[in-house]
């Protein structure tokens, strides 16, 4: 079933955009360039029936080139197939196009990727932080961020209750 | 003591105000369950029929801070949650006591990361710490008794 999918993808109209196909432990990953991500996602959804975006995850490889990896885990409900689309962005400009036009579920996933890893998604309608306070300056899942954080960046409650407290 | 005997015959009891109030407070602890993680499950067992904390004078869990006088912080407290915990603590009427239940509430425990407060004593006055991950209900009962001992030694209400 996996092989059939690989064959079909190799014959598809976006086969030239695929850089690499990996298969490990029964999980299939296709690697694409970050500028092709929306086109490939759209084709996979419309032609291959991958209607469900399960998750977007990010990896900080901490390398000079291709530092951040962004992985889209997608599911074809009808055929019970899973596929991972992987793409890389550079440290000096960690940005790529948003896939919200393809899957609406990407909205909060991309906000999380921005919050935790600092990856910008162009065309996102509301790219705010999702977990951390809006005035937090760092992206804590990056390798250079210290494990115990930076003292004073997250607010602790006041010792005394506010004077006008009711 | 002539006075005591004379009063006892008429059905009166002679005691100190402090002793009476502290005795009453110590034996009617109403905990505010601040269950934040898996310690809350052990805290529920501590109140449930198996361990039955009512035997030791801590009758009911109150989910309203206005009716509680013992806050049991059970679980890891993030910086985000710490504001809510402090707000609930501020809403509890005096006199009140606080227990840090488990390793996470006491010191951050295994959550040694940027988002978790490394011990709730950084923003709350903690009276007793419970070790364990999670602690067994017996230890929570023991801590309750420790708090009761502390309550019985409270300073005089007349000095307030």
Provide structural commentary.
- The complex is a heterodimer of chains A (166) and B (160).
- Chain A has one domain (2-122): NADH:ubiquinone oxidoreductase Nqo5 subunit (Beta Polymerase, domain 2, 2-Layer Sandwich), CATH 3.30.460.80.
- The relative contact order of chain A is 0.13.
- The termini of chain A are far apart.
- The model of chain A has no long low-confidence stretch (mean pLDDT 88).
- Helices cover 20% and strands 28% of the residues of chain A.
- Chain A has 3 helices and 7 strands.
- In chain A, the strands form 2 sheets. Chain A has a 5-stranded mixed β-sheet with strand order 1-2-5-4-3. In chain A, strands 6-7 form a two-stranded parallel ribbon.
- Chain A has 166 residues and is of the alpha/beta class.
- Chain B is α/β, with parallel strands linked by helices and 160 residues long.
- Chain B has one domain (29-151): Rossmann fold.
- Chain B is built from 6 helices and 4 strands; from the N terminus they run H-H-E-H-E-H-E-H-E-H.
- Chain B has helices spanning 2-9, 17-26, 39-47, 79-91, 102-107, 137-152; strands at 31-35, 70-74, 97-101, 128-130.
- A 4-stranded parallel β-sheet of chain B has the order 1-2-3-4.
- In chain B, helix 2 packs antiparallel against helix 6 and helix 3 (39-47) crosses helix 6 (137-152).
- In chain B, 34% of the residues are buried.
- Chains A and B meet through loops of A and helix 4 of B.
Offer a concise description of the structure.
Chain A has 166 residues and is α/β, with parallel strands linked by helices. Chain A has helices at 2-11, 37-48, 106-117; strands at 18-24, 27-32, 52-60, 68-76, 81-89, 95-97, 120-122.
Describe how the helices and strands are arranged:
The complex is a heterodimer of chains A (166) and B (160).
Chain A: H1 2-11, E1 18-24, E2 27-32, H2 37-48, E3 52-60, E4 68-76, E5 81-89, E6 95-97, H3 106-117, E7 120-122
Parallel strand pairs in A: 2-5, 6-7
Antiparallel strand pairs in A: 1-2, 3-4, 4-5
Chain B: H1 2-9, H2 17-26, E1 31-35, H3 39-47, E2 70-74, H4 79-91, E3 97-101, H5 102-107, E4 128-130, H6 137-152
Parallel strand pairs in B: 1-2, 2-3, 3-4
Helix pairs in contact in B: 2-6, 3-6
């Amino acid at each position: 079933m996996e092989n059939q999918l690989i064959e079909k993808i190799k014959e598809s109209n976006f086969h030239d955009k695929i850089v690499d196909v990996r298969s490990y432990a029964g999980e299939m990953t296709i690697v694409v360039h970050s500028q092709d991500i929306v086109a490939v996602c759209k084709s996979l959804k419309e032609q291959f029936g991958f209607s469900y975006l399960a998750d977007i995850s990010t990896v900080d490889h901490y390398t000079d080139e291709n530092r951040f990896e962004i992985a889209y885990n997608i599911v074809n409900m009808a055929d019970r197939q899973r596929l991972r689309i992987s793409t890389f962005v550079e440290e000096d400009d960690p940005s790529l196009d948003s896939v919200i036009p393809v899957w609406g579920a990407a909205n909060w996933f991309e906000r999380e990727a921005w919050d935790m890893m600092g990856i910008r998604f162009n065309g996102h309608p509301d790219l705010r932080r999702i977990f951390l306070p809006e005035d937090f300056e760092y992206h804590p899942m990056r390798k250079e961020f210290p494990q115990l954080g930076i003292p004073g960046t997250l607010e602790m409650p006041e010792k005394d209750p506010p004077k006008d407290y009711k | 003591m002539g006075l005591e005997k004379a009063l006892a015959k008429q059905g009166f009891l002679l005691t100190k105000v402090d002793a009476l109030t502290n005795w009453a407070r110590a034996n009617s602890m109403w905990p505010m369950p601040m269950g934040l993680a898996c310690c809350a499950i052990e805290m529920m067992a501590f109140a449930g029929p198996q361990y039955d904390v009512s035997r030791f004078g801590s009758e009911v869990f109150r989910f309203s801070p206005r009716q509680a006088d013992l806050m049991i912080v059970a679980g890891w407290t993030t910086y985000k949650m710490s504001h809510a915990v402090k707000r609930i603590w501020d809403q509890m009427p005096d006199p009140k006591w606080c227990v840090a239940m488990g390793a996470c509430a006491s010191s951050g425990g295994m959550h040694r990361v940027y988002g978790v407060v490394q011990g709730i004593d950084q923003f709350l006055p903690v009276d007793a710490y419970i070790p364990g991950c999670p602690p067994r209900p017996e230890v929570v009962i023991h801590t309750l008794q420790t708090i009761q001992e502390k309550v019985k030694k409270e300073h005089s209400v007349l000095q307030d």
